[in-house]
Amino acid sequence: MTTNSPRPVADTILNFIGGSYRKGSQGKTFDNVNPATGQTIGTVHEASEADVADAVAAAEAALDGPWGKMTTAERVKLIVAVAAEIERRADDFLDAEVADTGKPRHVASHIDIPRGAANFRMFADVIATMPGESFTTPTPDGGQAINYAVRKPKGVIAVICPWNFPLLLMTWKVGPALACGNTVVIKPSEETPRTAALLGEVMNAVGMPEGVYNVVHGFGGGSAGEFLTSNKDVDAITFTGETGTGQAIMQKAAVGVRDVSFELGGKNAAIVFADADLDKAIEGLSRSVFLNTGQVCLGTERVYVERPIFDEFVQRMALAAQTFKPGVIGDPTYLGPLISAEHRDKVLGYYAKAVEEGATVVAGGGVPKVDGDQAGGFYVEPTLWTGLAHDSTVMREEIFGPCCGVIPFDSEDEVIALANDTDYGLCATVWTENLSRAHRVAAAMQVGVCWVNCWFLRDLRTAFGGSGHSGIGREGGVHSLEFYTETANICVKL
Ligand code: NAD
To answer: Which one Pfam family would you cite for this protein (predicted)?
Structure first.
């Protein structure tokens, strides 16, 4: 149950190490800003290199403590209790997430917080029902051997997270990591430290042994992020964020040959054929472009529309864009802010670049006029362009804002080539009522996830991840087990 009225959130955000909340040992802090107003609403205590080392040591020690000795059933029980406690404290998580991100409460209450709990429940189920592998093997003496696989936790997992769905994306990694018996050290985004810190209270409330779940706050290079990825006692690193950051982390992971799982950026294409159900396509794509103010890794920034319906599509998408109200908190069509002033500058840089590159601005294109408390928030207008070349900067680089370019196409082969002509490969959507074409085109997309006539319809048991510059590895359901466990084979001669 959630309410709509925000309550005051904590103004001091601490590290969580070995089951206790702590300031940073060097006394450094940074501001926590509410992007909906631009106001500083809290102080975050930054972890020093020594604090990060303490967190990793606590996580290592926990592997040898009660946590490491628990049966799967005991671990599953605790993880299910974490999910239940998040649900019980849903309002606290909602307030914290909305304060950090400025996102609409209806988005956080329908997506972020329930998924935060579901990520624990689902991976508890996966681990509780996981089948094993075994083979009976003939031996040279005419006898038999049995081979069977056992899965063991990898150890201490570093979890480095972005700011767009802070609790959801963090628990997507923490859920399976803990279900598999690992311990974790989280480095939440510097923009959104609250829900990771709050989850420490949940861990203590359900009796999670100390050191299993740790949180260190700070930035990337030269701060907590780099201290964590450089720590030699971290056994594997799971990261969601920008492709460039992934490259920097991979260099650190090379020392000690540590495994990585990466969910990175995208420049996702949508293909709308002339036979599509246009109502469905407009509804799905207006969510895909504008939800969370376009700050969704799976969001669409390139739309290819078959020429006979191009004009009608553009007209209807422009109307859809105009229904969002940046800065009008509480309105059902409230469009939240971008995460920071810096990110708004970046997005506005692309808005200017689009015009430079010859775009026709069909909707938006600038900064909305916002009154009252929200006047200092980091809002931009939902924006739609036509007239951009497929190889323009705006159509090639990830913007991560509420905007897309729309380009016409004439044939299936042409549009498959256009959609795949990118270094990224996270996801795509295909809109058509022709069944054969739907399967054919979806299979031709060089991406990790392709949706047909829908978007962001997630079943947490399915493989999730990207190809090319969009990531390494797959997480979700049993696929997560590949990363969060080491498989050992035992061969017994009978
Ligand atoms: P980011 O890469 O800037 O930061 C992500 C995290 O990495 C933050 O916690 C940051 O402090 C940390 N970090 C930065 N530099 C580091 C370093 N050198 N060493 C260690 N840690 C470092 O990304 P962001 O701006 O927070 O998030 C937006 C990006 O995330 C977009 O590119 C988006 O596409 C991507 N994303 C991908 C997925 C996915 O599932 N593929 C999901 C959400 C977001």
So the answer is: Aldedh
Of 46, 210, 226, 263, which one is the catalytic site residue? 263
Is the ipTM beyond the 0.95 threshold? Answer: yes
210 catalytic? Reply is no
**Tokens in use for 289?**
């472009």
Q: Model pTM?
A: 0.96
Q: All domains of the chain, ordered by start, with CATH? A: 12-264+470-493 (3.40.605.10), 268-459 (3.40.309.10)
CA of 463 to the centre of ligand 1 (A): 20
Sole residue written with tokens 């992007």: 35
Distance CA 126, CA 135 (A): 22
In this structure, the residue with its CA closest to atom 26 of ligand 1 is 162
Structure-block tokens of residue 285: 């794509």
- Measured in Å, residue 3 CA sits from the centre of ligand 1 at 30
- Per run of 10 residues, the mean pLDDT along the chain (length 494 residues) is 60 97 97 97 98 98 97 97 98 97 96 98 95 96 98 98 98 98 98 98 98 98 98 98 97 97 97 98 98 98 98 98 90 94 98 98 97 95 98 98 98 98 98 98 98 97 96 95 96 98
